[in-house]
Amino acid sequence: MPVIPNDILDKLADADQAGINMKSPKAVVNHLLAQGEKESILFFYKRNSLEFDFDKFNGAVEEMQKRKK
Questions:
Q1: Who contacts 31 (Cβ-Cβ below 8 Å, separation ≥6)?
Q2: More confident residue, 68 or 49
Q3: Which of 16, 19, 42, 59 counts the highest number of beta carbons within 10 A?
């Protein structure tokens, strides 16, 4: 599992705090877009691809939730 940058984890924690459904990548991406976080969203895409990496997203959400405890 790649190391998830702290700023990404912070943005996910902010989304969680705002009541965003963290099981829905679409909801999280929409929230991040509304916050102007285009670069953060790119972290969740596969390298050299237009394909969203759901495993990376789910791993980051899991890491954020562990860190929150």
A1: 15, 18, 20
A2: 49
A3: 16
Render 30-65 in DSSP notation, one character per residue.
HHHHHTT-HHHHHTTBPTTSS-B-HHHHHHHHHHHH
**Residues near 27 by Cβ (< 8 Å), separated by ≥ 6?**
20, 21
pTM of the model: 0.89
The type of residue at 18 is A
Determine the angle formed by the axes of helices 54-68 and 25-34, rounding to 10 degrees.
80
What pLDDT, in 10s, does the model give residues 14-60? Answer: 999 999 999 999 999 999 999 999 999 999 999 999 999 999 999 99
- Number of residues assigned to the chain: 69
